[in-house]
Write a structure and sequence with these properties.
This protein has helices spanning 55-62, 71-84, 100-109, 118-126, 143-152, 162-175, 214-223, 246-266, 292-310, 323-326, 360-364, 454-460, and strands at 41-42, 48-50, 53-54, 66-70, 89-93, 112-115, 134-136, 156-159, 179-186, 190-192, 195-197, 208-209, 229-235, 239-240, 272-274, 316-319, 330-341, 347-351, 371-372, 381-387, 396-404, 412-416, 437-441, 444-449. By secondary structure, the chain is α/β, with parallel strands linked by helices.
Length: 463
Amino acid sequence: MSRSAHPAGPRHGDVLPEGHYSPPPADLNALDEKVWPLTARRGEDGAVSLGGIGVRELAEEFGTPAYVLDERDFRERCRAWREAFAGADVFYAGKAFLCRAVVGWLKEEGLNLDVCTGGELAVALSAGMPPERIAMHGNNKSVAEIERAVTAGVGRIVVDSFEEIERVAVAARLSGVRQKVLVRVTVGVEAHTHEFIATAHEDQKFGLALAGGDAAEGVRRVLAHPDALELVGVHSHIGSQIFDMAGFEVSAHRVVGLLTAIRDEHGLELPEIDLGGGLGIAYTSEDDPRGPHEIAKALGEIVTRECEFAGLRVPRLSVEPGRAVVGPSAFTLYEVGTVKPLAGLRTYVSVDGGMSDNIRTALYDAAYTVGLVSRSSQAGPMAARVVGKHCESGDVVVRDAYLPADTEAGDLLAVPATGAYCRSMASNYNHVPRPPVVAVADGQARVIVRRETEEDLLRLDVG
């Protein structure tokens, strides 16, 4: 079907369909620098390039769907976090996205790494991350995972329960080491973007609650193993996709209160405090995240003020950005398969991926941006919903979007800000192989995680 033959979906000025449609952007061809990776450009031919390579060339060489990662963007974000938190420790949260190439970049750019499973630890060690620069998280680490972490010499283990304290102590004795640990504390603060609710959030699987004294008891149990465990600090994590520092302020106040109680009970001033991650990024033009230097200044002032008020030495601060480093560094490249206008509603644009490569829209009702990237268009905007190929009505990639009204089969679309959690949470639903991750830099592209094949799927099926 020719572009002009498509029945028009709702356009600017029409009654908009039910959803979260805001007025369409003035220019559908523009790339908002808040949302798109650093080197994304639209060329004279109308096509978008990343790292100096056009999307049409990327699609031809690597196929679609594909995660395309801007290595320069990733590295510059690493440097910005490292520089902003000079005198503190920055641990990249591997759960956002991890592979051996990423571990290599982290080593070169001076960031540490936190992992939360044996698999993530295996990737880190296989890529040569110095174990002393690794922190091990997780609410239910197996005995084998703990033993491997201790034997490998990881720098920190964040203990999450009374049982785990004992397991780490046993593993440390068997290895003949004194393992450094932090106690994960649930502070009763949950932050979501621009608001926080400071009650009733001890009801979760992570950490030891301040309320009721579990955190204080966890400290006592760690200190009961002075030959095997060295308590170096406390850890707190209050949520994800956070733009507002208010939740951190409440959290720091409560964590410093625990540090004060530890000093008063045990005569011990702990040298470290880890305030976790969860710092937000821009998924759409409406999002307004803070930069690393602003975050560092705010967190430093909060912790310093609280410690000075309590009469404590200011501990060394740690933070754990994951999404904030890798999230904006990548987009997912798709090919349009079908375009289905629904009169008076919206136009459904189906692509060759979906919830198997980005579950966040279905799982969290996450909002994303999408752009036509294989060409520019002067057509007016149509209210669209970008959906996948899976056998689920909830298989939505971008729920509420505007695309040019002449979008058609064979066009390439890109969804930016998909570097974090998309590949990490990808699945083989409907036996769809997972896409590759392609790193681009300075006019060169290379696969850093290859595309799965049907042979990969069949290899696991023992019949």
